[in-house]
Amino acid sequence: MKIRLKLTLQFLLIISAINLLAFLSIYLLSAEYRKDEFYERLNSKSINTAKLLIDVHEIDGDLMRIIDMNTISLPEEKIMIYNYNNEEIYSSTDEDKIYPLALINKIRLEKDIRFREGRNECLGLLYSGEFDRFVVISTAFDQYGISKLNNLKWILIFVFIGCSVITLIGGWLFAGQAVKPIKRVIGEVEQITDKNLDKRINEGNRKDEIAMLSRTFNHMLNRLEQAFFAQESFVSHASHELRTPLTSIRGQVEVALMSSRNVDEYLFILQSVLEDVKRLTQLSDGLLALAQTKTDNIRETFSLIRIDEILFQARELILKKWPSYEINIEFASVPEDDLILYVHGDKQLFKSAMMNLIENACKYSGDHKSLVEIDFGGDNLIVRIIDKGPGIPGDEIEQIFLPFYRGKNSRNINGFGLGLSLARKILDIHEARLLVQSIPGKGTTVTVSIPNHRIFN
Questions:
Q1: Looking at the domain 227-292, which fold is it?
Q2: What are the two backbone dihedrals, phi and then psi, of residue 351, each rounded to the nearest 5 degrees?
Q3: 58 Cβ neighbours under 8 A, 6+ residues apart
Q4: Does domain 298-454 have CATH number 3.30.565.10?
Q5: What is the pLDDT of residues 408-450, one digit of tens each?
Q6: pTM of the full structure
Q7: 205 by DSSP, 3-state: which?
């Protein structure tokens, strides 16, 4: 069901419910008023009849009937009067109607009783004459009151139907105006494709919910544009990095097959091919590690790991690979309890992230030295990796985390540009923050902050 139709039906339902409640109240109040008014007329007629018959000695039953016949009476009116012995002393008609003794006694006790006989409404009351107490029972059919009430009922029904039709039309027009901005947003969104991701949706007055929806779409488009840019950059750089060693291998093999060569020349070519194969292996390992950080079930492998042990193991592995590197690990402050050094995470992934960060610091530092500090700040366990390299320009700090991105200061240094991207993804999985602060010409400090809610099991 479309929103416009849904809004129209909801609008119709609300207004119809209000009208129904109002019209029903009018009808019920009118019905109650008719009943009270009719009983007042019965009461007045009963008292007048009783006064004339009982208090005026010159009037007897026969004369009273003559008076009733020559005065305006209610439809199907009948008045009966009983004395203290419950004997009927007057009846306005010749119809033999006997009321039960229990009813007459009840009227004497309660003095005023209302009841119905078929379509007629009845009133029983106690009239105290000069010498005795009499029971007066009057009945009549409120033909005119009920006719007016029925007329009111049909008027309300037709008005309700008319109001519902008007409400339906008005609701449809109102809903159309309400969803018009949404249709505009939908139309603008439909015009955006992968060819024009830089296009944005008009945010209107920037105050209402439609403006909020437009801003949300624009924020999503910003993220999509960045993701498409990162993907294009990734594919472009990956293709280049893969093509270079493959082209080199192909060229060397083709040269080797052109003519017969001696053993030393073949060994030299094979050694060169082996270097390119190692480069390809290193690149594929990096891509595989990057892909593995996107799996959804990594957190299922989390366990308690100790940060200082991870850092010492990372240093040992780096020094085996690069013996010329120098890595110093220090505590900026002594922990009061060793448990504060434990975090919840994946040991191998966290070690890989730390190795990439530390290896980068040594690689880009002129003396191949780096300092690793372990600190504790408020709600965070902090690891700082400090180097004295050439630094990173401010406009490149965010871009260095893109896969295959190489900064201007790193063009002459071997690498693929995957380390920082991999490290950031791993730390994101561990809900750790990664902050890079750099001063060109003086060095770079990489700060890893692990929130306290990850500490302890």
A1: Helix Hairpins (1.10.287)
A2: -65, -40
A3: none
A4: yes
A5: 555 555 555 566 777 787 788 778 888 888 888 788 898 988 8
A6: 0.51
A7: coil
